[in-house]
Design a protein that fits this description.
A hairpin with a 5-residue loop joins strand 5 and strand 6. The chain has a single domain, classed as Glutamine Phosphoribosylpyrophosphate, subunit 1, domain 1. About 55% of the residues are buried. It is α+β, with helices and mostly antiparallel strands and about 325 residues long. Strands 4-3-2-6-5-1-11-12 form an 8-stranded mixed beta sheet. Strands 7-8-9-10-13 form a 5-stranded mixed beta sheet, with helices on one face.
């Protein structure tokens, strides 16, 4: 099997480089997806992952991450603070414990006990953006998914959050030379979220899912919508039933749209969700709710950024939140 890596968004390109380097040297897919997304976790320019991730409404940076491999082994951390690489804590849970998920203080203590060092995750830039948000008194969280979303303040040119495309969850699926598939997800979540909020990233079956005999899927976008649809599990099941990765991603997106409209109370319909998928044949696919979702694909020695197919053909601007 030729190695292949697919990941979400522009910051997936750098993550893919690391993952593909490991796959090319003979490492397995679990090593690749862990070390690959750590690149985004370590990059302060990626405002939705790890170090430099935008804070919650209390000014605290809380991180979620998960991994899953072809043996159905899983590990996840929820709402952990002061740990720079939560994906590696999730990997350690997978490898070393009988549990599948640790949260908050328990996840932090587990990490410190196992050699992780506490870190300050704020940066000068993230603190500045948080203070700007507080001064704006928007009264709700803000979601940043595509370069088409422009977050504006009524008296300025905006917070500049989407300018370079470095935003939103990074999810990755890789297949190694033995045909083994693994997946990872890591995020700091929606900016200015209510403290304690958890999206789809660390929830197995929502943010990611792998069936070693079928394939793997990861999601990105508004986590609440993907959780509602069990989106990644749904897409893997559709592949198990005979759909191609592309067909399965589109099917999962359509389910997300349906359930969002059905559960309209306290929900708006201006959101983005995207999926990427790989099957055991090395075929891949990607789809999203709206235009703007990009995925990075490294295959046959080439790392490229690609636009996904989308289902709803409309653009919009989020203003004065």
């Amino acid at each position: 099997m030729k190695p292949l890596v697919i990941s979400t968004w522009k910051h997936g390109l750098a993550a893919n480089e690391k993952a593909y380097e490991l796959l090319s040297s003979g490492s397995n897919s679990l090593d690749a997806v862990e070390q690959g997304v750590r690149v985004a976790e370590d990059d302060p320019a990626v405002l939705s992952v790890g170090y430099g991730g935008l804070p919650d409404a209390e000014g605290r940076v809380t991180l979620d991450a998960a991994v899953m491999d072809w043996k159905a082994r899983i590990g996840a951390v929820v709402c952990v603070e002061h740990i720079k690489n939560p994906v590696s804590v999730a990997r350690l849970i997978l490898e070393k414990t009988e549990h599948v998920c640790l949260a908050g203080e328990g996840a932090y203590n587990f990490a410190i006990t196992n050699g992780f060092m506490p870190d300050i995750l704020h940066t000068e830039s993230s603190i500045k953006k948080y203070n700007e948000w507080k001064q704006g008194r928007y009264g709700r969280s803000q979601e940043f998914h595509t370069d088409e979303y422009k977050v504006l303040k009524s008296n300025s040119n905006g917070l500049g959050i989407n300018d370079d495309g470095n935003h939103d969850t990074i999810g990755m699926v890789a297949i190694d030379k033995d045909g083994h598939i693994s997946a990872s997800c890591t995020t700091s979540g929606t900016a200015w979220k209510q403290h304690g909020r958890v999206g789809d990233t660390p929830i197995i079956g929502a943010g990611l899912y792998v069936d070693g005999e079928v394939g793997g899927v990861v999601s990105t976008g508004r986590g609440e919508e993907c959780v509602r649809a069990c989106g990644s599990f749904l897409a893997v099941e559709m592949m198990a039933g005979g759909m191609s990765p592309q067909e399965a991603c589109e099917y999962a997106v359509k389910r997300v749209i349906k359930l969002n409209l059905q559960s309209h109370k306290n929900r708006d319909h201006d959101y983005q969700v995207g999926f990427v998928a790989v099957n055991v044949k090395g075929e891949y696919g990607a789809a999203s709710v709206r235009e703007g979702f990009e995925y990075a694909l490294y295959t046959n020695g080439s790392n490229t950024l690609n636009k996904s197919k989308y289902i709803i053909d409309e653009k919009f601007i989020i203003q004065d939140l």
